[in-house]
Amino acid sequence: MNMLAQFSTNQASMSSRDLLDLINQVRSNLGEPLLRLNKFNEKIEDELEGDHYTKSVVQNLNNTESVIYELTLDQCMLIGMRESKAVRKNVLAILKEKQKPFDITNPAHLLQAIEVQAKLNIELSEKVAVLAPKAEALEAIADTSNTYCLRECAKTIGIRESDMIQLLIDKKWIYREPSKTPGKSGKLQPHAQFVTNKVFINRISPVITNQYTGQEMVHTNMRVTAFGLTRITGLVNKMRKAQQVAA
Question: Which domain covers residue 165, as residue numbers?
Answer without folding.
Answer: 150-246
